[in-house]
Amino acid sequence: MILEKKNRYGLIGKLRAVAGQGKELASILLEASQVLSAAAGCHLYVVSQDAGDETLIWIQEVWDSRQEHDESLNLPGVRELIARAMPLLEGRPEPGTPLNVWGGKGLD
Questions:
Q1: CA angle, 88 as apex, 86 and 92 as ends, to 5°?
Q2: All domains of the chain in start order, with CATH
């Protein structure tokens, strides 16, 4: 059965930028995707802007485990990117929605 394979840790998050700062916030998150391209266990880190609200930025992540996701926050450069992004946020970030990822196109 296909669902007997090891599932992965996924996370969908949304960040609301200060008005007029959505593209700048997305740009910083895309820089983060470059840092994470070499992170152990990272299979997917996608940054999107909401089609109906330019201040709303979505992040979709897939990792081998939650532990590898959490450890990625300590990679060189990640904390600096977070510090650059924080002033662009409207309020505090909402917690992401954790997912059990079974697979699909693009994930082996």
A1: 55
A2: 2-90 (3.30.70.100)
For tokens 């970030």, the residue is 93
Helix, strand, coil in percent for the chain, rounding step 5:
35, 30, 35
In this prediction the pTM is: 0.88
SS3 90: coil
Separation between Cα atoms, residue 56 and residue 54, nearest integer Å: 6
* Of 55, 59, 60, 52, nearest in space to 90 by CA: 55
- Cα 39 to Cα 3, 23, 79, distances in angstroms: 26, 24, 14
| pLDDT tens-digit readout, 40-54 | 999 999 999 999 999
Strand partners, 48: 58
Helix (H) or strand (E) holding 26: helix 22-36
